[in-house]
């Protein structure tokens, strides 16, 4: 059975420390020690995205059409001059980033439970809503054939791209945020979270008060969705407390977290456990 990562390894690897450590906590396995893990051994489910005929998986499609190109885009952003105040993205790169963000939200393993529990179905198209209804009716079934069917419905339908949502993400604009605090971002099983606070221009002369959805793609780099007037801008976060607040938001909405600093993950695991 194949390991399918709902947070791609290309992202997980960017959260390792300089010595290559990546500390991991799983709320469903709280008894396990918080030790350094290989990115290939965490944030995955077996056959999570296998298609009905078993000849190809969503995982393969993600790898070929989404993850590999997005990795190349991140490398280009990372290699940009550290003093650059803007990054010029092509329309294709903007579309790629929007698709990646959309799928990063929708391919998490708890998407069915999350949508059913909070009733937030406005972002789904009619086919996705029907899939949710089918899954809702059969969630407690012990019938292996039905379980197999529901698995396939999830693999094919719940990660089906809603082009209107992707276009909306693309139209909001994309901002690059560098973390210059020394306090690393963490990654969670639900990694897209809201950042509220001040960001600074690269020169430090201008401050921006933001309240936007963000995705930390490494321990020191974050993509921010909008606002449109900051599209293509490179900003920086200089307040370590703001990074810790963002990390808490990611931890509290996730079942699993990982990061380069063991003490950070221990503290956040206690928060997740309600200690």
Keywords:
single chain; three-stranded antiparallel β-sheet; globular; 275 residues; 41% helix; five-stranded mixed β-barrel; alpha+beta
General description of the model:
This protein has 275 residues and is of the alpha+beta class. The protein has one domain (3-11, 19-107, 159-272). Helix content is 41%, strand content 19%. It has nine helices and ten strands. The two termini are 36 Å apart. The model has no long low-confidence stretch (mean pLDDT 83).
Please specify the SSE layout and strand pairing.
Blueprint: E1 3-5, H1 9-12, E2 23-26, E3 44-46, H2 58-79, H3 91-106, H4 111-118, H5 126-138, H6 144-158, H7 163-172, E4 174-179, E5 187-188, E6 192-201, E7 207-218, E8 221-225, E9 234-237, H8 240-253, E10 256-259, H9 262-272
Parallel strand pairs: 4-9
Antiparallel strand pairs: 1-3, 2-10, 4-8, 5-10, 6-7, 6-9, 7-8
Helix pairs in contact: 2-3, 3-7, 5-6, 8-9
